[in-house]
Structure formats: structure tokens, C-alpha cells
Amino acid sequence: MQGFSIIYTRFDGRISRKEFLFGSFFIAIIGLFIFSAISIPSLSSLNPNNILTLNENVDTKLLNEMQQRQHWLSFSAYIFLLIPTSALFVQRLHDRNLSAHIYWVYIILSLILFIPKNIEIIDNFASFPNVIEVTIRLVTTGLAIYLGFTCSFLNGSKGNNTYGSDPLTK
């Protein structure tokens, strides 16, 4: 297996499926801790009786502020984890002798879905997505399934390819 800095910071070369899966597991554990640290303080500061009954005593301005703060913290964590996650996916796609363009399309679509939630102030609890948002969500989901399956289950190309030498022969 390659060194820590090579797997999580480089966007060239190739990594094996085993390195990809171990790296993904490590990032998932870190992400779980980060997102838990973001979510738990926000949730614990709310009075559940007011939220569950939608009582008039609910301070909607406070809820909106907390929701926006949580979205921005989540977005920051997403960006923080984006670099090592992207490095893993790009190197694994290279191992399959594929360009990383499809991965970058997925990231751009994900950001398009994520950013508006952080910018707008939500005044009510029910917001209905429009046709464009639903379409982008469906495409993003399809790309996520394709990328996950391709990188996790399919073998890399044998021998040297356009992106470097076979990681299994090193």
C-alpha cells in the first residue's frame, strides 16, 4: 500500500481496489465524527416538545439561524473531505484506465444541489423541489451509483495504462 499523503492528496497515478476501500472507510469514519460534532449540538439545544407539536412558542427565527449555521458547517466539512475523497476516486478511476471527468461532473452537480440550501433562508418546513432540482438529483444519484460500483467492485486494468503502472505489481 502507498503512503498516506499519496493516497489522499495526489490526483495522478493509480491505486488498487483494496487501497480505495480502506481509504474510503477511513474517510467515512472521519466524516461520521465531523458531522456528528456538527449535528448533535444543534439538536440538543432545541426543546423537543415545541418541535414535535409545532407549538406557537417555537422561535422560527432561531430555528432558521440554527439550520443555516448547520448547513454552512456541513458545507465546510464537505469541502474539507472533498480533497481526500476526490484523490481516492480519481486514482481509482485511473486504475480502471478511465478519465476522472465523470467524477468532476458528479462533484459539480453535488455542489449545485448543496449551495442553494445554504444561501436561502427557509421560512417554512415544507419546500417542494422543482423539476430541475429533481432531475439533477436523479442524475447525481445515478452517477454516485456508477462511480461507487465501478471503483469498489470492478478490477483495475492489468499492467501499465495511460495513468501509470499497475498498483498490484509494485
Folded structure, characterized:
This protein is mostly helical. It has one domain. It is 69% helix and 0% strand. The chain is built from six helices and no strands. It is globular, with a radius of gyration of 20 Å.
Give the beta-strand count. Answer: 0
Q: What is the number of helical segments per DSSP (H or I, 4+ residues)?
A: 6
Shape annotation? globular
The biggest beta sheet, please?
none
Count of domain modules: 1
- Encode the helix/strand succession as letters: HHHHHH
> Using only CA atoms, what is the Rg?
20 Å
Record keyword descriptors for this entry:
single chain; 170 residues; mainly alpha; 6 helices; 0% strand; globular
Secondary-structure blueprint:
Layout: H1 4-9, H2 17-44, H3 48-53, H4 60-95, H5 101-119, H6 131-153
Helix pairs in contact: 2-4, 4-5, 5-6
Give a quick rundown of the structure.
The protein has 170 residues and is mainly α. The protein is built from six helices and no strands.
